[in-house]
Design brief:
mainly alpha, 0% strand, globular
């Protein structure tokens, strides 16, 4: 499944926000596995590039995504997605980021 996610752009784009978060979280449980890291990078690339996807994430989704992405910050897409998720601190719709 990880290899399919990594190689199939259509499959990655068929995932709704919850699906992206669930996939990232599941894939992060196998650090060091090339197929999982490749799939995480591909999903992170979508997350970094898709403003609407990031905006659709609720607070728990953001927290789970950041936790998953933190396990592969050596990857450029994971690092970029993490930064993009964190760049909305203190907005009215996400008051939990005011800390």
């Amino acid at each position: 499944l990880a290899s399919q996610l990594a190689d199939d752009r259509g499959l990655r784009h068929a995932l709704d926000p919850q699906g992206v978060v669930n996939a990232l979280n599941a894939l992060s449980k196998w650090p060091g596995r090339a197929s999982c890291e490749k799939a995480m990078e591909a999903l992170a690339g979508r997350l970094a590039a898709d403003h609407d996807l990031r905006q659709a994430l609720r607070a728990p989704h953001v927290a789970l995504s950041l936790n998953a992405l933190s396990k592969l910050l050596g990857g450029a897409a994971c690092r970029q997605a993490s930064l993009r998720l964190a760049e909305r601190p203190g907005t009215a719709e996400l008051p939990w980021q005011q800390f």
